[in-house]
Amino acid sequence: MRLFLLTTLTMCAFAANSILNRLAIDSGASDPAGFAVVRVFAGALVLTALVYLRGCRLPLRSRRRILGAGSLSLYMIGFSVAYLTLDAGLGALILFGVVQITMFAVTALTGSAPTGRQLAGAGVALGGLAYVLWPSGAVQVDMVGTVLMAAAGIGWATYSLTGRSEPDALQGTAANFVVALPVTALALLAFGGAWHMDGIGYLLAAVSGGVTSGLGYALWYRVLPQLTPSTAAVVQLSVPVIAIVGGIVLLGEVAGTRLIIGAAVVLVGIALAVLRPKRG
Known about the structure:
By secondary structure, the protein is an all-alpha fold. The protein has one domain. The chain has helices at residues 2-26, 32-53, 64-82, 88-109, 116-133, 143-163, 169-192, 199-223, 229-235, 238-251, 257-274.
């Protein structure tokens, strides 16, 4: 039960990131690149402070930073730049679809192939997510945005897989944010053009970075060793649904029949993949 609650809290933190991002960018309070840079900076600042308050040091020179910080940068850069040209729903589908494929493929190659039940559950959940997020009307797919979002998915999948072997979740996450900050900032400022953020944009990005990203990612690293890679991949399909529900509750968005049906299918798929049938 404790693992279930911690995993649910982590997924809610991820969904809150999406809501904060939408609030800042859709309102014009921030541009995507600026939001991401401040988000990583705030996460690095908060996590580093917590590490030093514990009397510990940041493991910056660990070889784990190559994959940890590198994949975090890849995710942040790809995600932020891709949404300049991609529809939000289609972007989320590409992101989470690539995360599933990457994590399932890597685990299969490393000797822990997902079961047929897990594959079926992932397929059902992804289908439900596609039903909820697929854009209405004609779909125009920007190839550059698609490639960048796919790269972001590979980055996040790698970040999640790397976290399973991190000896200290807080220290590892803090070091990843610190090392990723200059790489992410330089790349996004090069792509993003003019910096546009007001006070609300800075506030939303700081909350996203320091709380829902920084602490959320540290919690993710905490629970990952207790989840199989396949389970870790599938449960993340709940994030867009939680974000949409959060938008309904917090932003006054409308809940349609499509959302209710799709969300139910996603939950059924996750349950199929995660829950083990009782043996008689």
